[in-house]
Write a sequence for this structure.
């Protein structure tokens, strides 16, 4: 069983990747940035070492059209975060720019489009620190029961990307490279 998780920037995708990398499941974080094209992404996501492989990535909606055939067989989880809260979160870490707000708005609209086209599990951002929401995500992605002790251990951690370092690694051509098949 394989899965995609997406949402607006600052929607705990790093935490979810960590949460879902456990007990026969492996979840990439931002695989879109680590591959050079969609074909390479598909190869990594079909890695046979794990029973369940996925990626937690706020940029997935940008590649929806290229990944559409995979979505027919894979699970889709969308983290629903308030648009203003996502923008304010970017502001708190110094990334609220006109360009970043435009990208957040575009991602928001793409996620809405994606949800209309495919079956999905919609999880409110605010619910991610609650056991019941994470049980739903785990069971939806793996078909097995969640380890509650692991959830309790991870729930106290503040796992997030170092945005200053992250922004230094982004190359302008990354997006165009990924769009090439």
């Amino acid at each position: 069983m394989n899965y995609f998780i997406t949402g607006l920037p600052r929607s705990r995708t790093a935490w979810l990747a960590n949460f879902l990398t456990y007990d026969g499941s492996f979840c990439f974080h931002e695989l879109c940035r680590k591959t050079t094209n969609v074909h390479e992404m598909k190869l990594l996501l079909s890695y046979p070492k794990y029973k369940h492989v996925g990626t937690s990535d706020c940029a997935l909606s940008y590649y929806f059209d290229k990944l559409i055939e995979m979505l027919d067989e894979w699970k889709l989880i969308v983290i629903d975060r308030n648009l203003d809260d996502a923008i304010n979160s970017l502001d708190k870490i110094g990334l609220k720019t006109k360009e970043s707000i435009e990208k957040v708005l575009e991602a928001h609209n793409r996620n809405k489009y994606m949800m209309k086209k495919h079956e999905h599990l919609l999880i409110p951002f605010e619910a991610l620190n609650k056991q019941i929401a994470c049980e739903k995500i785990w069971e939806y992605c793996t078909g097995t029961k969640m380890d509650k002790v692991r959830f309790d251990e991870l729930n106290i951690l503040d796992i997030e990307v170092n945005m200053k370092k992250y922004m230094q690694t982004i190359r302008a051509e990354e997006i165009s490279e990924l769009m090439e098949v």
